[in-house]
C-alpha cells in the first residue's frame, strides 16, 4: 500500500507472510528459492565458492539466466 502508483512490488514467496500478502495497487513479481509455487522467478543450481555465489534464474516462457 505504501508503494507509489508507478511502483513495482518484488515479493519473496519463500516467506509465508509475503507469499500470502495480496498486493493490488502495483504490478507484482514473485520470486523464490525454496518455495517455487506461485513464484514467477526461481533460483536453481545455487553454488557457493571462495570466488562468490552463482545460480540460475528461471522464469516464464522458458526464461533462464545464469548469474
Give a structural overview.
With 67 residues, the chain is mainly beta. It has one domain (9-66). The chain is 6% helix and 42% strand. The chain contains one helix and five strands. The chain has one helix at residues 16-19; strands spanning 9-12, 28-32, 41-49, 52-58, 64-66. A five-stranded mixed beta sheet has the order 1-2-3-4-5, with no helix packed on it. Strand 3 (41-49) and strand 4 form a beta hairpin. The chain is elongated, with a radius of gyration of 14 Å. The mean pLDDT is 91.
Structure characteristics:
67 residues, 5-stranded mixed beta sheet, 1 helix, 5 strands, 6% helix, elongated
Contiguous low-pLDDT stretches (5 residues minimum) are none
SSE-based structural type: mainly beta
Spatially, the strands of the biggest sheet line up as: 1-2-3-4-5
The number of helices is: 1
Q: What is the count of β-strands?
A: 5
- Overall pLDDT level: 91
Tell me, what's the shape?
elongated
Task: Work out the count of structural domains.
Answer: 1
